[in-house]
Specification:
By secondary structure, the chain is mainly β. It is 3% helix and 30% strand.
Length: 538
């Protein structure tokens, strides 16, 4: 049994006193089979099905909840399972304490079937360390859902939701993005599958916790998409939806909230990340739970994993009421992966910042981030820049990337002197072996990233990599001619003619100050190859 907070100890004592006084009905689950109905009086002790005001306890049984409960005084689980079925089913109680066991959903469903979700409405909610709410692969089946992947052969694409699904080989259409990032309601979509009669690659399910008081997450809440085995050729399912609202919110480092996309199989695209939304008025210390809306792996092409690359598998979203969870230093693992959105968040100023064993991507466009002293990225990733607005990252001290640290800076369309993003380092820029900066030019407008530093020191095996991060295929002033047997893209040199003699476009740009990205190649049937980006460090 997990450690009980002082607040919940007092609530427990209050319930014991009221029970002793006969003012509360004690309802103990006694059903001995699998997934027995909550509504069957035979599964409860002599008091029968819990009525309004009851204090309900489940220690080991397997309960199937198909309708909304009465307004309970409390619901406590120390073991067993509770399975929600149907969309409108709701567990309603003043206090909900999951001190062990598993809350879950039935198997995944199709677009024509009744969908399910975990829905808990309460005053206070506690998920203790070791307790689990599990909606993994409990959303749409493979080949189902608004973001379903494309399949029916051996090169299927991943499902989309908060992030886009990854393409399979042969450019299969990736699953698209849908749902509201601040109020996610939809399950994750299934990936494409080889055989329609054997659907796999299911999307993650839906979890809704609606509390008017305190939510504490020391355990695990998960709505991940299904990972396809590598010996299969299906796409991955996308992550599901987790929506938590409360007056106060917190949780220890043992807590984890996850809506990851599933990996794709051989030649299959990964599932896009799901959507997590956390609404709160206050943070309750500690607030160190881990959050992830990560994309799945694209096993067809592991390089197609970035937001500015066509047919990429992308991370889902993590919506937060404010920026208080972005504490300093950014402790190990808080943001496992996902694109963080905070309403009205355009400026972020910190004395110093350490990103360690975490992946933080800020989705708000036009961010101006100012670090007075050093920025260190250690075994983690920071991504800056989104949308059309120009992003700026200004560092008053040194920028240090070590132990496979990564910094991605993404250009917008609104440019200053041709640059759509700026990385300015007043001190030294130090890149250890295995650590990389990845500047992204805008794929259609060509705005690029300007980087300045006092000194640039790069160890062997690290560096600045703008490969394939220029204009997309069929984009740019030197793009290849867009017909069959296509010409290559031009820049400092002219692209090669296509096999049918199709002409390429003339060269462009400056010889002594090249500040434009490379143009994409032509392709009459799909996207064409991408041009190189811009590496500009002073």
């Amino acid at each position: 049994m997990g450690k009980m907070s002082n607040r919940h100890a007092l609530v427990f004592l209050w319930i014991v006193v009221l029970l002793a006084a006969g003012r509360l009905q004690a309802a103990l689950w006694t059903g001995g089979g699998d997934n027995l109905s909550w509504s069957d009086p035979a599964n409860w002790e002599a008091a029968g099905v819990p009525e309004a005001g009851a204090a309900v306890t489940n220690a080991a049984g397997a309960i199937l909840l198909a309708n909304a409960t009465a307004e309970l005084a409390s619901f406590t689980m120390t073991g067993g399972t509770l399975t929600f079925t149907n969309w409108t089913t709701c567990l309603r109680a003043t206090n909900v304490v999951l001190d062990g066991g598993i809350v879950t959903l039935p198997p995944p469903f199709t677009e024509t079937q009744m969908s399910n979700r975990v829905w808990i409405a309460c005053t206070d909610f506690t998920l203790a360390a070791g307790a689990v709410i599990d909606a993994d692969a409990k959303g749409y089946q493979g080949l189902n859902g608004p973001g379903k992947g494309e399949g029916y052969d051996t090169h299927s694409s991943g499902g989309g939701h908060g992030g886009r699904g990854g393409r399979g080989s042969y450019n299969k259409k990736p699953g698209l993005v849908y749902d509201d990032m601040a109020a996610p309601l939809f399950p994750g979509s299934g990936g494409g599958v080889k055989f329609k009669t054997e659907p796999t690659a299911h999307g993650g399910g839906v979890i809704r916790i609606d509390a008017v008081g305190l939510v504490t997450v020391d355990g695990t809440i998960t709505a991940d998409g299904l990972m396809t085995p590598k010996d299969h050729r299906d796409g991955g399912g996308s992550g599901g939806a987790i929506w938590i609202s409360s007056q106060r919110f917190g949780g220890a480092e043992t807590g984890r909230i996850s809506a990851r996309g599933g990996n794709g199989g051989t030649f299959g695209g990964g599932g896009g990340g799901g959507r997590i939304a956390i609404h709160y008025q206050q943070l309750s210390e500690p607030a160190r739970m881990r959050l992830s809306a990560a994309r799945g792996d694209n096993n067809y092409d592991v390089n197609l994993i970035d937001t500015k690359e066509p047919f990429a598998c992308t991370d889902g979203t993590i919506w937060l009421s404010d920026a208080r969870l972005l504490t300093v230093p950014l402790l190990s693992g808080t943001f496992e992966r996902g694109v963080v959105w905070v309403p009205g968040f355009t400026e972020w100023a910190q004395e110093s910042l350490v990103v360690s064993n975490a992946s933080l991507a800020i989705g708000n466009p036009g961010m101006a981030i100012t670090i007075t002293n050093d920025l260190r990225i250690e075994s983690g990733e920071l991504r800056v820049g989104a949308g059309d607005e120009r992003a700026e990252l200004s560092i008053g001290g040194n920028l240090v990337l070590t132990n496979s640290g990564s910094l991605a800076v993404v250009s917008g369309t609104n440019t200053v002197d041709g640059y759509g993003a700026c990385l300015g380092v007043a001190g030294d820029l130090l890149l250890a072996s295995g650590s990389w900066i990845r500047p992204y030019s805008h794929p259609t407008e060509g705005g690029s990233v300007r980087m300045t530093a006092r000194n640039l020191m790069i160890a062997a095996g690290g560096g600045i990599n703008a490969d394939n991060r220029g204009f997309h295929g069929q984009q740019g002033p030197g793009t290849g001619v867009n017909v069959w047997h296509d010409a290559g893209g031009s820049y400092g040199g002219r692209g090669e003619l296509g096999t049918a003699g199709n002409a390429s476009k003339p060269v462009y740009g400056s010889i002594d100050a090249p500040d434009q990205p490379g143009s994409g190649g032509g392709h009459g049937g799909s996207s064409g190859a991408q041009g190189g980006g811009v590496r500009a460090a002073v």
